[in-house]
Amino acid sequence: MSSLVDSNQKVLPDPNEAGSTMDSEDVSLTVIRPRKGWQLINLRELWHARELLYFLVWRDVKIRYKQTVLGAAWAILQPAMMMVVFTIFFGRLGGMSAGAGDHYPLFVLAALLPWTFFSTAIANAGNSVVGSERMITKIYFPRLTIPFASVGAAVFDFVVSCGLLALMMAYYGVSPTPQLLLAPFVFAIVLLGALGLGSLVAALNVAYRDFRYVVPFLLQIGMFATPTIYSSPDAHSSRSLQLLLIVNPMTNLIAAFRATVLGGQIPWLAAAQSGALILILFIASCLYFRHVEDDFADII
Length: 300
Hints:
globular; mainly alpha; 2 strands; 2% strand; two-stranded antiparallel sheet
């Protein structure tokens, strides 16, 4: 049956159809056109698509560990192996364990977990839109759910790997402090940064496939530009590296997360500044994503 759609998405019968009792004066015609220019984030649309977001997250988690012998245990083995490598080569041979006390492996692990989540989330989100070509070209749904789902799958790995952190704290006899209650808030800021930067890279990767090769390289550099294996920018004499560590918003957030977990002085002011910068990045990235998402189906 042919029909018209009004502004409230109600299906109305066609007045020209035989047997219709509706007067032509009561029929309103709505022309649906794509919005032009910059658009704000449609939170209501994302909320209505929350079930789709959940299933996309679960799909990414199942695909990642499908046909693997160890399954989700890789979420623990990966940071554990990196911790061992960093402890041997950077801690013992490189002498970077100064200032970390006798718990250098735990010191490294507490910073590796949020950074591993951040880098994994951005890498997966960057290729998410291109990898969802069939969905984008066939049906309509909020496109932001695609990179958001990739970041959500990385959250699953982070939660699983936190079990290793708890075991390491028990092994070294490090008792949690009341500051541990602040760790979820610090992680929420890191999550916001991953959502923003991941969405930006996903949008750029559609038009410029070079980002598929550039992003992993930049993430590897970013790990050493973030205090994961050392305590602060003062541990290096290079002024250029110190400047890079200072302007990197993850520097203060990693330090804050490690302080909340292991105890210590939290850089409140620096963490607040990093949080403000990440909030701006998140809004700008989502605005750009919304600005170019109408062209995804044509470009992909």
